[in-house]
């Protein structure tokens, strides 16, 4: 091999290394960007199937969580808009950390509400237990969030959490230009209704969730209430959860 050929080979190798590094940085950027709009699991599914980035519809038993802040509409009218968003984003950051830690996937934020699913897009046999444990951990974090609020001169906030386990249809919903991973079905509506019965600082779960989370010592000394949710034909018994495993509110 001549000296010129060796130089050309070295140059080609350097260009290949540079291209690899650029692709690595580009992939990291895409993953970070997707991560702002999608859950980690959904983003991973898309990146692993780039040519056909769709998660087909399926029916699966999952555990659904709905959360909501009390007096948020009133606070949004009373507080400076910048302060309100600052407070809300801090609260979301704390809740996202906990939900992710318990293998939950946040599907969307609806105003100040969080909609999350446990057991999708990847199956998780501990979905119900993880959801209840996550909810308890979330309520336990609220005093620290309110301490931060006080330091900023913001008001204290309270959150209610509703959880239900049942079949739902999950998959990418939308069009080629706009799509999102979501869940649909009667049980999704019921989970949302369950949350509507909560007070600030309360966790209400359905009997289905309580049964599915039998592997975790769940404490429901808060009692139970019998309700007839709108759009649901039969009465539903809701359990007031105050602890799960070693966690207590």
CATH architecture of the largest domain: 2-Layer Sandwich
CATH class of the largest domain reads Alpha Beta
Radius of gyration (CA) equals: 23 Å
Shape: globular
Task: Count up the helices.
Answer: 7
SSE ordering:
HHEHHEEHEEHEHEEEEE
Low-pLDDT residue spans:
none
Q: Roughly how many Å apart are the termini?
A: 74 Å
Strand content: 25-35%
Quantity of strands, as a count: 11
* The CATH homologous superfamily of the largest domain: Nucleotide cyclase, GGDEF domain
The chain-level structural class is alpha+beta
Q: What is the total domain count? A: 2
Round the mean pLDDT to the nearest integer and report it.
Answer: 86
* CATH fold category name of the largest domain: Alpha-Beta Plaits
What portion of residues is helical?
40-55%
Describe the main β-sheet briefly. Answer: 8 strands, mixed
Itemize the secondary structure elements and their pairings:
Blueprint: H1 3-37, H2 40-48, E1 58-69, H3 72-78, H4 81-101, E2 104-110, E3 113-118, H5 127-152, E4 159-174, E5 179-184, H6 186-196, E6 203-206, H7 207-212, E7 218-219, E8 224-227, E9 236-240, E10 243-244, E11 247-248
Parallel strand pairs: 4-6
Antiparallel strand pairs: 1-3, 1-4, 2-3, 4-5, 6-9, 7-10, 8-9, 10-11
Helix pairs in contact: 4-5
């Amino acid at each position: 091999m001549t000296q010129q050929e060796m130089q050309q080979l070295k140059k080609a190798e350097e260009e290949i290394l540079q291209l690899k590094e650029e692709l690595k940085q580009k992939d990291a950027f895409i993953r970070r960007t997707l991560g702002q709009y999608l859950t980690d699991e959904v983003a991973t599914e898309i990146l692993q199937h780039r040519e056909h980035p769709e998660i087909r519809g399926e029916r699966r038993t999952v555990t659904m969580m709905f959360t909501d802040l009390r007096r948020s509409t009133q606070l949004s009218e009373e507080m400076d808009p910048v302060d309100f968003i600052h407070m809300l984003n801090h609260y979301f950051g704390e809740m996202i950390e906990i939900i992710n830690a318990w293998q939950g996937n946040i599907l969307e934020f609806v105003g100040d509400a969080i909609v999350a699913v446990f057991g999708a897009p990847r199956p998780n046999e501990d979905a119900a237990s993880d959801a209840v444990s996550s909810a308890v951990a979330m309520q336990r974090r609220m005093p620290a969030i309110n301490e931060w609020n006080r330091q900023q001169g913001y008001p204290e906030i309270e959150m209610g959490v509703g959880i239900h386990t049942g079949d739902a249809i999950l998959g990418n919903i939308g069009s080629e230009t706009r799509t999102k991973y979501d869940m649909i079905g009667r049980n999704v509506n019921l989970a949302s209704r369950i949350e509507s019965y909560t007070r600030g600082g309360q966790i209400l779960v359905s009997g289905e969730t309580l049964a599915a989370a039998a592997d975790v010592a769940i404490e429901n000394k808060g009692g139970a209430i019998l309700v007839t949710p709108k759009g649901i034909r039969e009465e539903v018994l809701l359990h007031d959860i105050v602890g799960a495993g070693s966690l207590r509110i």
